[in-house]
Amino acid sequence: MRFTVLTLFPEMIEQGFHTSITGRAAEKGLLELRCVNIRDYASDRYGHVDDYPYGGGAGMVMQAPPIYRAYQAAVGEGKRPRLLYMTPQGRVFDQKLAMELAQEEELYILCGHYEGVDERVLDEIATDRISIGDYVLTGGELPALVIMDAVSRMVPGVLSNEESGEGESFMNGLLEYPQYTRPEIFLGRAVPEILRSGHHANIARWRRNESLRRTRKVRPELLEKADLDRADRQFLESLEREEKDFSDL
Ligand code: SAH
User: How distant, in Å, are the alpha carbons of 138, 153, 166, 194 from that of 163?
Assistant: First the structure.
Protein backbone atom coordinates (compact mmCIF):
# COMPACT_ATOMS: atom_id res chain seq x y z
CA MET A 1 0.00 0.00 0.00
CA ARG A 2 1.35 3.38 -0.97
CA PHE A 3 0.10 6.57 0.70
CA THR A 4 0.73 10.02 -0.74
CA VAL A 5 -0.22 12.84 1.62
CA LEU A 6 -0.63 16.43 0.45
CA THR A 7 -0.10 18.62 3.50
CA LEU A 8 1.36 21.84 4.88
CA PHE A 9 2.87 19.90 7.79
CA PRO A 10 4.71 16.86 6.39
CA GLU A 11 6.83 16.47 9.55
CA MET A 12 3.69 15.77 11.56
CA ILE A 13 2.68 12.99 9.15
CA GLU A 14 6.18 11.51 8.92
CA GLN A 15 6.64 11.41 12.69
CA GLY A 16 3.31 9.78 13.33
CA PHE A 17 3.58 7.26 10.54
CA HIS A 18 7.16 6.14 11.14
CA THR A 19 6.48 5.15 14.75
CA SER A 20 5.68 1.65 16.01
CA ILE A 21 3.73 -0.78 13.82
CA THR A 22 3.25 1.32 10.68
CA GLY A 23 6.89 2.42 10.82
CA ARG A 24 8.06 -1.18 11.04
CA ALA A 25 5.81 -2.18 8.14
CA ALA A 26 7.26 0.67 6.08
CA GLU A 27 10.79 -0.60 6.79
CA LYS A 28 9.71 -4.03 5.60
CA GLY A 29 8.37 -2.51 2.39
CA LEU A 30 4.73 -3.42 3.09
CA LEU A 31 3.77 0.25 3.32
CA GLU A 32 5.14 3.32 1.66
CA LEU A 33 4.62 6.95 2.63
CA ARG A 34 5.27 9.94 0.42
CA CYS A 35 4.58 13.44 1.72
CA VAL A 36 4.13 16.36 -0.61
CA ASN A 37 4.53 19.78 0.98
CA ILE A 38 1.90 22.03 -0.55
CA ARG A 39 4.00 25.06 0.38
CA ASP A 40 6.63 23.98 -2.17
CA TYR A 41 4.00 24.80 -4.80
CA ALA A 42 3.08 28.23 -3.43
CA SER A 43 2.02 31.01 -5.79
CA ASP A 44 4.70 33.49 -4.69
CA ARG A 45 8.21 33.42 -3.31
CA TYR A 46 6.90 34.16 0.20
CA GLY A 47 5.26 30.77 0.28
CA HIS A 48 1.67 31.98 0.51
CA VAL A 49 -0.85 29.17 0.22
CA ASP A 50 -3.94 30.75 1.79
CA ASP A 51 -6.04 33.88 1.32
CA TYR A 52 -9.16 35.65 2.61
CA PRO A 53 -12.51 34.06 1.84
CA TYR A 54 -14.64 35.58 -0.90
CA GLY A 55 -17.79 36.98 0.70
CA GLY A 56 -15.98 37.78 3.92
CA GLY A 57 -15.95 35.99 7.24
CA ALA A 58 -13.37 34.73 9.67
CA GLY A 59 -10.18 32.86 8.91
CA MET A 60 -8.21 31.95 5.82
CA VAL A 61 -8.90 29.51 3.01
CA MET A 62 -6.28 27.33 1.33
CA GLN A 63 -5.93 28.37 -2.30
CA ALA A 64 -6.67 26.04 -5.18
CA PRO A 65 -3.60 26.53 -7.44
CA PRO A 66 -0.84 25.39 -5.01
CA ILE A 67 -2.84 22.26 -4.11
CA TYR A 68 -3.52 21.51 -7.74
CA ARG A 69 0.14 21.93 -8.70
CA ALA A 70 1.23 19.68 -5.81
CA TYR A 71 -1.34 17.09 -6.92
CA GLN A 72 -0.26 17.17 -10.56
CA ALA A 73 3.40 16.84 -9.66
CA ALA A 74 2.69 13.83 -7.44
CA VAL A 75 0.18 12.05 -9.67
CA GLY A 76 1.65 12.55 -13.11
CA GLU A 77 -0.12 13.22 -16.40
CA GLY A 78 -3.49 11.69 -17.15
CA LYS A 79 -3.99 9.64 -13.97
CA ARG A 80 -6.87 10.06 -11.53
CA PRO A 81 -6.08 8.17 -8.31
CA ARG A 82 -8.39 7.79 -5.34
CA LEU A 83 -7.96 10.96 -3.28
CA LEU A 84 -9.48 11.36 0.15
CA TYR A 85 -10.11 14.89 1.34
CA MET A 86 -10.22 15.06 5.15
CA THR A 87 -13.22 17.12 6.23
CA PRO A 88 -15.76 17.17 9.06
CA GLN A 89 -18.35 17.33 6.25
CA GLY A 90 -17.45 13.90 4.86
CA ARG A 91 -18.66 10.33 5.22
CA VAL A 92 -17.86 9.20 8.74
CA PHE A 93 -14.91 6.80 8.77
CA ASP A 94 -15.43 3.31 10.20
CA GLN A 95 -13.93 -0.19 10.09
CA LYS A 96 -15.94 -1.09 7.00
CA LEU A 97 -14.49 1.84 5.07
CA ALA A 98 -11.01 0.97 6.37
CA MET A 99 -11.39 -2.53 4.92
CA GLU A 100 -12.63 -1.14 1.63
CA LEU A 101 -9.73 1.33 1.34
CA ALA A 102 -7.21 -1.41 2.18
CA GLN A 103 -8.09 -3.06 -1.16
CA GLU A 104 -6.53 -0.14 -3.05
CA GLU A 105 -2.89 -0.22 -4.09
CA GLU A 106 -2.47 3.49 -3.69
CA LEU A 107 -4.28 6.23 -1.76
CA TYR A 108 -3.87 9.98 -1.88
CA ILE A 109 -4.90 12.06 1.13
CA LEU A 110 -5.39 15.83 1.16
CA CYS A 111 -5.16 17.59 4.53
CA GLY A 112 -6.91 20.93 4.89
CA HIS A 113 -5.98 23.62 7.40
CA TYR A 114 -7.35 26.98 8.60
CA GLU A 115 -10.98 27.37 7.47
CA GLY A 116 -10.64 24.72 4.79
CA VAL A 117 -9.90 24.48 1.08
CA ASP A 118 -11.21 26.30 -2.02
CA GLU A 119 -14.13 24.16 -3.17
CA ARG A 120 -13.10 24.19 -6.83
CA VAL A 121 -9.93 22.17 -6.36
CA LEU A 122 -11.85 19.64 -4.28
CA ASP A 123 -14.39 19.24 -7.07
CA GLU A 124 -11.50 18.64 -9.44
CA ILE A 125 -9.37 16.12 -7.51
CA ALA A 126 -11.21 14.63 -4.52
CA THR A 127 -12.86 11.24 -5.13
CA ASP A 128 -13.99 10.89 -1.48
CA ARG A 129 -14.64 13.25 1.42
CA ILE A 130 -14.03 11.62 4.75
CA SER A 131 -14.59 12.72 8.35
CA ILE A 132 -13.17 11.00 11.40
CA GLY A 133 -16.06 12.14 13.60
CA ASP A 134 -18.41 14.94 14.54
CA TYR A 135 -15.94 17.46 15.89
CA VAL A 136 -13.68 20.03 14.28
CA LEU A 137 -9.88 19.83 14.35
CA THR A 138 -7.33 22.45 13.35
CA GLY A 139 -6.09 20.42 10.41
CA GLY A 140 -6.42 17.22 8.39
CA GLU A 141 -3.09 15.76 9.51
CA LEU A 142 -4.40 13.83 12.52
CA PRO A 143 -7.36 12.50 10.50
CA ALA A 144 -4.92 11.40 7.75
CA LEU A 145 -2.85 9.51 10.35
CA VAL A 146 -5.99 7.91 11.75
CA ILE A 147 -7.07 6.70 8.31
CA MET A 148 -3.60 5.44 7.35
CA ASP A 149 -3.28 3.61 10.67
CA ALA A 150 -6.64 1.86 10.42
CA VAL A 151 -6.12 0.98 6.74
CA SER A 152 -2.54 -0.24 7.30
CA ARG A 153 -3.66 -2.74 9.93
CA MET A 154 -5.81 -4.36 7.25
CA VAL A 155 -2.88 -4.80 4.85
CA PRO A 156 -1.68 -8.43 5.03
CA GLY A 157 1.55 -8.84 6.99
CA VAL A 158 1.40 -5.49 8.80
CA LEU A 159 0.17 -7.04 12.03
CA SER A 160 2.73 -9.60 13.15
CA ASN A 161 0.07 -12.22 13.84
CA GLU A 162 -2.75 -12.09 11.30
CA GLU A 163 -5.02 -13.63 13.89
CA SER A 164 -4.79 -10.55 16.04
CA GLY A 165 -7.02 -8.61 13.65
CA GLU A 166 -9.80 -11.13 13.82
CA GLY A 167 -11.64 -11.04 17.14
CA GLU A 168 -11.17 -7.31 17.30
CA SER A 169 -13.79 -4.67 17.95
CA PHE A 170 -16.06 -4.03 14.93
CA MET A 171 -14.58 -6.85 12.85
CA ASN A 172 -17.55 -9.06 13.67
CA GLY A 173 -19.93 -6.19 14.39
CA LEU A 174 -19.30 -6.38 18.16
CA LEU A 175 -16.90 -4.78 20.62
CA GLU A 176 -14.05 -7.00 21.76
CA TYR A 177 -14.05 -8.95 25.03
CA PRO A 178 -11.79 -7.78 27.91
CA GLN A 179 -8.13 -8.80 27.74
CA TYR A 180 -5.79 -9.86 30.56
CA THR A 181 -2.10 -10.63 30.88
CA ARG A 182 0.32 -11.32 33.74
CA PRO A 183 0.37 -10.83 36.72
CA GLU A 184 -2.43 -13.12 37.75
CA ILE A 185 -3.44 -10.84 40.61
CA PHE A 186 -3.29 -7.06 40.37
CA LEU A 187 -4.37 -4.84 43.31
CA GLY A 188 -6.35 -7.79 44.64
CA ARG A 189 -8.17 -8.41 41.35
CA ALA A 190 -7.69 -11.85 39.87
CA VAL A 191 -7.82 -12.78 36.20
CA PRO A 192 -11.16 -14.54 35.46
CA GLU A 193 -10.74 -18.19 36.41
CA ILE A 194 -12.02 -19.52 33.10
CA LEU A 195 -9.19 -17.89 31.11
CA ARG A 196 -6.71 -19.99 33.11
CA SER A 197 -8.68 -23.20 32.69
CA GLY A 198 -7.16 -24.15 29.33
CA HIS A 199 -10.64 -25.21 28.15
CA HIS A 200 -10.78 -23.65 24.67
CA ALA A 201 -14.49 -24.03 23.99
CA ASN A 202 -15.45 -22.53 27.34
CA ILE A 203 -13.01 -19.68 26.86
CA ALA A 204 -14.43 -18.95 23.41
CA ARG A 205 -17.98 -18.91 24.80
CA TRP A 206 -16.96 -16.69 27.71
CA ARG A 207 -15.28 -14.24 25.34
CA ARG A 208 -18.25 -14.17 23.02
CA ASN A 209 -20.58 -13.51 25.96
CA GLU A 210 -18.39 -10.73 27.30
CA SER A 211 -18.34 -9.20 23.81
CA LEU A 212 -22.11 -9.29 23.75
CA ARG A 213 -22.37 -7.88 27.26
CA ARG A 214 -20.07 -4.95 26.46
CA THR A 215 -21.67 -4.17 23.16
CA ARG A 216 -25.13 -4.23 24.72
CA LYS A 217 -24.03 -1.90 27.48
CA VAL A 218 -22.00 0.65 25.52
CA ARG A 219 -23.16 0.41 21.88
CA PRO A 220 -26.52 -1.39 21.84
CA GLU A 221 -27.26 -0.19 18.30
CA LEU A 222 -24.42 -2.42 17.02
CA LEU A 223 -26.35 -5.51 18.13
CA GLU A 224 -29.07 -4.79 15.61
CA LYS A 225 -26.70 -5.35 12.69
CA ALA A 226 -24.47 -8.03 14.26
CA ASP A 227 -24.59 -11.64 13.11
CA LEU A 228 -26.02 -13.42 16.17
CA ASP A 229 -26.74 -17.13 16.63
CA ARG A 230 -29.07 -18.91 19.03
CA ALA A 231 -26.58 -19.09 21.88
CA ASP A 232 -25.90 -15.37 21.52
CA ARG A 233 -29.59 -14.52 21.69
CA GLN A 234 -30.07 -16.77 24.70
CA PHE A 235 -27.25 -15.04 26.51
CA LEU A 236 -28.67 -11.60 25.72
CA GLU A 237 -32.08 -12.71 26.95
CA SER A 238 -30.53 -13.98 30.17
CA LEU A 239 -28.98 -10.53 30.69
CA GLU A 240 -32.37 -8.93 30.20
CA ARG A 241 -33.96 -11.30 32.68
CA GLU A 242 -31.24 -10.60 35.21
CA GLU A 243 -31.85 -6.88 34.91
CA LYS A 244 -35.57 -7.29 35.20
CA ASP A 245 -35.28 -9.50 38.28
CA PHE A 246 -32.99 -6.94 39.81
CA SER A 247 -35.37 -4.05 39.17
CA ASP A 248 -38.28 -6.08 40.60
CA LEU A 249 -36.51 -6.44 43.95
N1 SAH B 1 -14.50 25.32 8.21
C2 SAH B 1 -14.52 23.89 8.08
C3 SAH B 1 -13.61 23.22 9.10
C4 SAH B 1 -12.16 23.51 8.88
S5 SAH B 1 -11.14 22.63 9.97
C6 SAH B 1 -15.94 23.38 8.29
O7 SAH B 1 -16.69 23.99 9.04
O8 SAH B 1 -16.29 22.33 7.73
C9 SAH B 1 -9.63 22.64 9.11
C10 SAH B 1 -9.26 21.34 8.41
O11 SAH B 1 -9.14 20.30 9.38
C12 SAH B 1 -10.26 20.82 7.40
O13 SAH B 1 -10.03 21.36 6.14
C14 SAH B 1 -10.03 19.33 7.43
O15 SAH B 1 -9.01 18.95 6.52
C16 SAH B 1 -9.54 19.07 8.84
N17 SAH B 1 -10.57 18.50 9.75
C18 SAH B 1 -11.11 19.11 10.83
N19 SAH B 1 -11.98 18.31 11.46
C20 SAH B 1 -12.00 17.15 10.79
C21 SAH B 1 -12.71 15.91 10.96
N22 SAH B 1 -13.58 15.73 11.94
N23 SAH B 1 -12.48 14.92 10.08
C24 SAH B 1 -11.59 15.09 9.06
N25 SAH B 1 -10.90 16.23 8.85
C26 SAH B 1 -11.09 17.25 9.69
Answer: 36, 12, 5, 21
Residue 204 Cα to ligand 1 midpoint, Å, equals 42
CA distances from 98 to 146, 147, 171 (A): 10, 7, 11
What tens digit of pLDDT does each residue of 121-133 get? Answer: 999 999 999 999 9
Choosing from 128, 137, 142 the residue with most ligand 1 atoms within 8 A of its CB, the one to mutate for a pocket test is 137
> Does the Cβ of 110 fall within 6 Å of ligand 1?
no
Closest CA to 83 of 139, 119, 124: 124
Instruction: Say if strands 185-186 and 189-190 run parallel, antiparallel, or are unpaired.
Output: antiparallel
Residue with CA at minimum distance from ligand 1 atom 26 = 87
Residue 98 pLDDT level (bands cut at 50, 70, 90)? very high
